[in-house]
Amino acid sequence: MNNLDKEFIAEAYSLIVQIEELIKKYEYEDRVMSAILIGILDIDFQNQPKEGDDVQLKSVFSYNLDSKDELEVVKQIMTAQYEDHDDDIDNFLNDLGISLN
User: Fold this and answer.
1) What is the C-alpha R_g of the chain?
2) 60: helix, coil or strand?
3) Between 3 and 94, where is the model more confident?
4) How far, in Å, CA of 38 to CA of 17, rounded?
5) Residue 73 and residue 62: Cα distance in Å, rounded?
6) Under 8 Å between Cβ of 30 and 64
7) Hey, how many other C-beta atoms are within 10 angstroms of the C-beta on 60?
8) For residue 21, which of 37, 10, 7, 32 has the smallest C-alpha distance?
């Protein structure tokens, strides 16, 4: 991890702390569900990683959840809201009768 990566992670962590402080300021600990993960891949782009190579994820995270049930709810929401852009393009092209195969 280079110095720029470290600076990025430190600044991201600082922003996460600000969000945590905002939740506390409004006394919303019992009303806010949050799960934050920010990570940066620790990859040596000089030597392109090959399939099967280990890649490290340097991350900071925070959560304001009361139970595993709340964690499951957050995971379900994130899964439902995630859009696979490749699927969107494929579906759009298929709707137009265009195939890239």
Assistant:
1) 19
2) strand
3) 3
4) 13
5) 16
6) no
7) 19
8) 32
What values do phi and psi take at 32, rounded to 5? -105, 130
Q: Torsions phi, psi of 3, nearest 5?
A: -65, -35
The rounded distance, in Å, linking the Cα atoms of 97 and 2 is 47
Find where tokens 């899964």 sit: 79
What's the pTM value of the predicted model, to 2 decimals?
0.69
For 28-73, what is each residue's pLDDT tens digit?
A: 999 999 999 999 988 776 677 677 777 788 999 999 999 999 999 9
- Listed residue (64, 54, 10, 57) closest to 32, CA to CA: 64
User: Tell me, what's the pLDDT at 21?
Assistant: 97
**Integer Cα distance of 91 and 57 in angstroms:** 31
Q: How confident is the model at residue 87 (pLDDT cuts 50, 70, 90)?
A: low
Q: What is the C-alpha separation between 70 and 32, in angstroms, rounded?
A: 11
